[in-house]
Design goal:
The protein is mainly β. It contains no helices and 13 strands. It has strands at 3-5, 11-13, 19-23, 31-32, 35-36, 43-47, 57-60, 63-68, 71-76, 85-86, 89-92, 101-104, 110-111. A 5-stranded antiparallel β-sheet has the order 6-3-2-12-10, with no helix packed on it. Strands 8-9-1-13 form a 4-stranded antiparallel β-sheet, with no helix packed on it. The chain is globular. The relative contact order is 0.33.
Amino acid sequence: MPGLAAHTGMIMTCPHGGIATILPAGPPGALVNGLPVATTANRIVVAGCVAQPPCATVQWANVSSVLINGRPMLTQAPPPTPPSVPGGGVCVGSATPGPPLVATMQLLVTGL
């Protein structure tokens, strides 16, 4: 799916206010704004969710045909532009799952 390149510096929260963080998966294959571009090799974890049970991870659904280190790049749907737009995945672990909310990310690099 085309969209903006997701990266480890994106600021996201789960629907309940927990912080979603993209964990690096080894040496970066590509950088955007000096930060590793996210691929399907990355894990996205959630900390501080107040739901019971809390959100634990994010399963990202928007992926590109662009490969980085042999893995598809994660993408965020194009505009409307952040802040606080639904992310391209779903927070899992909670009894009330929902998409992460993207507050900030890069807006220049896209992939198909």
